[in-house]
Amino acid sequence: MERIGVFLCHCKLIPPIDTGRVFEAIGNKPGVVYAADYEEMCMAPGLERVKEAIKDEKLDGVVLTSCSPALYEETFRHIVTSAGLEGYQMVVAELKGQDGAKEATQRAIEAIESALERLRMSRPTVSSRVPITKRALVIGGGIAGIQASLDIADAGYEVILVEKTPSIGGRMIQLSETFPTLDCPQCIETPKMTDTGQHPNIKILAYSEVEGVSGNIGKFKVKIRRKAAYVDWDKCNGCGICQERCATKALAEFQQYLDLPGKIAHRKAIYIPFAQAVPMRPVIDREHCRYFTKGKCGLCEMACPVGAIDFSQQDSFVEIEVGAIIVATGFDLMPKSEIAEFEEDPDIIDGLEFERLLCPAGPTAGKVIRPSDGREPKEVVFISCCGSRDPEHGVPYCSRVCCMYLVKHALLYKHAVPDGQAYIFYMDIRTTGKGYEEFIQRAVEEDKVLYLRGRVSKVFRDGDKIKVWGSDTLTGKRVEIACDLAVLGMAMLPSEGSKELAVKLSIATDEYGFMTELHPKLCPLESTVPGIYLAGCCQGPKDIPDAVAQGGGAASKLLSLFSQDEVILEEAAVS
Amino acid sequence: MNLSYYPGCTLKTKAKNLEDSAVASMAALGVNLVELPRWNCCGTVYSFAEDEELHQLAPVRNLIRVKEVESNKVVTICSFCYNTLKRANLLITNDPEKRNTLNTFMEEEIDYNGEVEVVHLLEVLRDEVGWQSISQKVQLPLKGLKVAPYYGCTLLRPQAVAIDNVERPTIMHDLLQALGAEVVDFPFATECCGSYQILSNPDFVSHCVWDILSSALRWGAEAVALSCPMCDFNLGQKQKELRQTHSGFKGIPILYFTQLLALSLGLDPEVCRFELNYVDPRPLLESKGLLRQ
Amino acid sequence: MRVEISTKRIYSDFVKKVEEINGQTLPPCYQCGKCSAGCPMSFAMELLPNQIIRLVQLGLEEDIAKSNTIWICASCITCSLRCPRGVDLARVMEALRLITMRKNIDHVKISEIPQETIAELPQLAMVGGFRKLTA
Ligand SMILES: Cc1cc2nc3c(=O)[nH]c(=O)nc-3n(C[C@H](O)[C@H](O)[C@H](O)COP(=O)(O)OP(=O)(O)OC[C@H]3O[C@@H](n4cnc5c(N)ncnc54)[C@H](O)[C@@H]3O)c2cc1C
Ligand code: SF4
Ligand code: SF4
Question: Is the CB of A340 less than 8 angstroms away from the CB of B218?
Answer without folding.
Answer: no
